Amino acid sequence: VSRQLKEEIRRGFARLEDPLAGLLAMLESSSDWKGKGHSLGYCITTELQLWIKEHPAVPQSGTKLKKLQARVLGMLSQCPANLLDPLISIYQLHTADRNYLLEHVSHLYLQGDYKEAAILSIKLKLQPDQDVEKMCTPLLLQDKANLVEDYVAEYPELQRKLLQTLDTWCDPSFNIRDVTRSYQGLSRYKPEKFNRRVLSKLVFRLLERFNVDPALCPNVINQRHLRTLNYLFYKRFVEKTMTEENWADHIQSTVGENRWLQGHLVQSLLRHCDARGAARWARRCRVPPEMLPRDVAEELQKLHIQDRVEEVTKADNYEDSKKKDYYQLPIPRENIHFLQSWEETLQCWEKVLQPGQVVGVDMEWKPSFGMVGKPRVALLQLALKDEVFLLDLPRLLEQAEAEGEKEKLPRFIQMLYSDAAITKLGYGMSGDLSSLAATCSALKDTEKQMQGVVDLLAVDKQVDGLSPEHSHEERGVRQPEKGLSLLVQHVLGKPLDKTEQLSNWEKRPLREEQILYAASDAYCLLEIYERLCKDPESFGLGSDLTESLVGKQSKKPRAKKQLNKQEAPSPSGQECQGPRTEPSRPPAPISPREFSVVCDNMLQGLGRYLRCLGVDVRLLDNEDDHRKAAEIARQEGRVILTSGLPYQTLRSQVGEGRCFSVNCSEKAKEQALQVLKHFNVQVSPSDIFSRCQ
């Protein structure tokens, strides 16, 4: 609003005998104030609000104010949302008679203006004197759950009442039509949004938002546990992808001592097993014998130790067949370290936080099966070329807290993720990082600060269907694989064994199978990365992996432009930069004869083009490892020219500014121009063909 208009408005107030009555008269007769946005009526109202603060003598009291309050109340249900607060403040509606306000809101409600009644109740803080079920029911029928959340937001007692009401509606024996019957003619009624499934999701959202004890909602919690129970039976007896140990762990923690769930467990056991099998599982899951049918109870008495012997024999055969069919860790078992003390962990960090290091990172947590809250990380895996470290996060956090050094673990993890000289490999990293933030709030900004990160989920979306050595007959075998397991199969030839994926990762001690699974999940990332760097074309990726990753993964259209910047973006779509310095001046101009480079093996065309312009060029051969470029650069003082993923590793092995990433999707001429411009190389006619071709 212009200063001139504000001054004019203020002069107008000064001339009025009663500015409050004047504003009301203006709003009542004006037609534009009901529109959206900042109308003239809005400008005048907010200006009066400020003017009153500067002229405390203006506010009125007594009968005159009451009359104005009555007029303004009639207006509030039609006025734009941005005028509510200023008008309530100007006419001191918080001081008005509470019964009068409640009556007015009740009148709105009876007219069917449920949303307006709720908003006004929130603004005037009338909720404690209202019936929460009555106020919220029509809003839920109109799919206004957000307004319902706001209505109870500041009142824990109302939150509990609302949750208990919703939980009653979610009881399978409750007829939801009993609720909807009274609102038959309701405008904007959305019956498809008012059912047990939608209501139970709302209950979980409210439980989490207001941090209420889930025991308050037994119907919703039991129904969710029952769905988990059915899912676990499907995984074990239909899909057959869950080990016995895992299955028993989850069944026990899901059912617990709950008699209702124990009853459902017995029914499911009888559907999937014979009486002997049902008895064995009932014993394992501690189902009270009196809940079992007679034939199962009889079998329970006959059970002997023989069962365990049979299981052990089966397990041995199973292990042998697994080795043939699944990816196996290429490092010895003694190189997998399970760390539970800070002394061991500090030794691990010394090895991990080395410039030039490539680290496979993964995390495991206990499956929540849709219960309240984000999962907390129970295990952090860090894989290096020769060893894997499994960090017992709950134990380490507990120890650090006991020693008064809560920030110890977050500090290490932030150092790892923010160091551009260390390449971190992951698969679906943002999910891992949000669980990490839920485990330790100090890590909530890790994703914003991370550098030198390669998320192989982005590669996965572009890898061609079969790796070079796979024949088409193998397609049928591989079909069920998905996610990282499928990528491992494409690139390394065998899928990951995912039977331990849904383990209870919080239970200690971890079983041997869990330890091997966790180590494999992190280590396979190193092998995939190495393989893709050596031969990206075979997997349909094109030699510039950075280009293929950034373009596809980043949602922002500017991702492509970043490629022409001085620092190439990391494959996660984030620009990798060292410590930020002041914007530097372009380097002093040099001639091609003073400029010497080593070209990585995917840039031979660029190397030949630069040589034509008189640059001193060394080319890597096709079979050379990328790291050879760093050796030559250090020995002969050359600048490395590379592209894609190797840039991450190479840049940390030479001085700052001595490694440059070019865009591999461009032709040699464009690449050469990019290099010359960046290093300020001035080419004269005498330089062209000055070197032996």
From TrEMBL:
The keyword ATP-binding does not apply. One of its GO terms (biological process) is nucleobase-containing compound metabolic process. Residues 336-537 form the 3'-5' exonuclease domain. Residues 553-563 have a biased composition (Basic residues). Keywords: Exonuclease, Hydrolase, Nuclease. Residues 548-591 are annotated as: Disordered. Residues 565-575 have a biased composition (Polar residues). Gene3D superfamilies: Ribonuclease H-like superfamily/Ribonuclease H. One of its GO terms (molecular function) is 3'-5' exonuclease activity. SUPFAM superfamilies: Ribonuclease H-like. The keyword Transmembrane does not apply. This is MUT7 Exonuclease. It comes from Mohoua ochrocephala. The gene is Exd3.
